[in-house]
Write a structure and sequence with these properties.
single chain, four-stranded mixed β-sheet, three-stranded antiparallel β-sheet
Length: 92
């Protein structure tokens, strides 16, 4: 699995993230989407879609741990793909 690494996240920060799916969609429409974290210590909320971008915020986490947050979309033709971001939590 490939992923993008985000800058170090402080456990008290609330970060906004957006993933652009336009190039992958090839003219299709996002029919369903979800965003989830690899562990409940890192909370994902305010998940929504604007055009071809899936947007969300992340908060929490434990110093010294890393978490994978995955954005998953399903298209109007049934194709599905994931885009993941690894957040490492530390003091900033």
């Amino acid at each position: 699995m490939s992923f993008v690494r985000a800058p170090t996240k402080d456990p008290n920060s609330i970060l906004y993230h957006a993933h652009e799916w336009r190039d992958w969609l090839e003219g299709e429409v996002v029919e369903a989407f979800e965003v989830f974290a690899s562990h409940a210590e890192l909370m994902v909320d305010d998940v929504h879609i604007e055009g071809t971008q899936v947007r969300y915020t992340v908060r929490g986490g434990v110093i010294g741990r890393s978490y994978l947050v995955t954005s998953r979309v399903t298209t109007s033709t049934g194709r599905r793909d994931d885009y993941s971001v690894r957040y490492v939590v530390g003091d900033k």
